[in-house]
Structures are given as C-alpha cells and as structure tokens.
Design brief:
Elements: E1 3-7, E2 10-12, E3 18-25, E4 34-39, E5 46-51, E6 58-60, E7 68-73, E8 78-83, E9 92-100, E10 103-106, E11 110-114
Length: 116
C-alpha cells in the first residue's frame, strides 16, 4: 500500500528555515520522480520542486529557486524539502506527490506559516 506522510511544517519568522520530510512506504522513492506542491489559501495548488528517479535531476518553481532544495535519502525512503530565506508568500499547505503506473498519490499535507 502506497503511503506518503509529510512532516516538519510549522510557524517560522520571515528569513527563517524549515525542512519538510515526506516519508514513503509501499514503494521505493529512488525509483520514481517525487514532487513537492503547495497550496495557499484561495490559490491553486502549484508545483514547487521535483526530483527525478535514479539520477536525482531537480527542478524548481521560479519563485523558490535559490532558496529551496529538494533531496532524497534512499536508505530512509524519504524525500526532503529544505526551505531557506522563507517569505510570507511561502505560507501554504505543502504536499508530497508521486505517480506510479498512472496513479497519483498524495500525502495529507503539512502547514507552513511564515509570519512575524
């Protein structure tokens, strides 16, 4: 059974950092592309970062380039999103997603709030 569980969200001041984790079960994260999305209140869900299977090629939304880093720990079967220099505009629920043989799987999300 495929399952994605996010953690690491919280309240942080502008300029601060957080590291989100997406713990996977039922499959191996190294074999599939893994994605972080976010959805802010009143806005559509958007792709934030992606890491490809095996070769670890990464892609980022323009709004987070240079501030966020996606990575993968194959031993822990977990994907991370390191978020630095956080801005109020980064406030959102962050979701982990993967697609396996045409089926989308999402985690339950973790809230990130950037506020002073």
């Amino acid at each position: 059974q495929v399952q994605l569980v996010e953690s690491g969200g919280g309240l942080v001041q502008p300029g601060g950092s957080l590291r989100l984790a997406c713990a996977a079960s039922g499959f191996t994260v190294r074999s599939f592309a893994m994605n972080w999305y976010r959805q802010a209140p009143g806005k559509e869900r958007e792709l934030v970062a992606r890491i490809s299977s095996f070769v670890r090629a990464t892609n980022y939304a323009d709004s987070v380039k240079g501030r966020f880093t996606i990575s993968r720990d194959n031993d822990k079967n977990t994907v991370y999103l390191q978020m630095n220099s956080l801005e109020p505009e980064d406030t959102a629920v962050y979701y982990c997603r993967t697609e396996i043989r045409g089926v989308d799987y999402w985690g339950q999300g973790t809230q990130v709030t950037v506020s002073s």
